[in-house]
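Practice problem 4.
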């Protein structure tokens, strides 16, 4: 509802204000397909590797009350398209209302404000740069990375961030004593 806080998909979202999001469902779904961003062919490395982006990232699904958003790109050591990747889907359960979905996207799953390069490799065939999305505030986190073949940061709409309250920090595995 209106006011501070809200509940989407059973998860409390602190600090969210705006229209009634009770009819918006947020879920993880598998992408319908991928396009290649980068691959290791011609890089003089003995291992196959590739990077892929979901085809439906950031586009309204034709004739539907759904919107799919990318969390980042997918790496695959086998060289081909990944299997089992996930992306975020927003669905308006009552009617087609692109304004409600756009508002929910902006409030719940904002794009990063910038990217920070965290790794790069240059080669004769194709360079690879890996970028970490920088969330718009401490209330959000980025779950993935985005890759490019140039030293220029990727477009801001190439990934979205999620509310910090929707994730659980990964705990380090306990080591057994000898």
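Answer key:
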């Amino acid at each position: 509802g209106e006011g501070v806080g809200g509940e989407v998909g059973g998860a409390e979202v602190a600090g969210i204000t705006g229209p009634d999001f009770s009819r918006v469902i947020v879920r993880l779904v598998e992408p319908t397909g991928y396009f290649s961003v980068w691959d290791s062919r011609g890089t003089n490395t003995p291992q196959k590797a590739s990077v892929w982006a979901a085809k439906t990232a950031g586009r309204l699904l034709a004739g539907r009350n759904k919107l799919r958003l990318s969390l980042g790109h997918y790496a695959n050591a086998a060289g081909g398209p990944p299997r089992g990747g996930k992306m975020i889907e927003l669905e308006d359960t009552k009617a087609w209302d692109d304004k409600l979905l756009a508002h929910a996207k902006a409030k719940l799953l904002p794009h990063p404000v910038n990217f920070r390069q965290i790794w790069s490799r240059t080669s004769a065939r194709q360079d690879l740069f890996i970028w970490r999305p920088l969330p718009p505030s401490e209330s959000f986190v980025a779950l993935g990375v985005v890759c490019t073949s140039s030293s220029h940061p990727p477009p801001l709409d190439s990934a979205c961030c999620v509310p910090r309250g929707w994730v659980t920090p990964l705990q380090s595995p306990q080591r057994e004593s000898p």
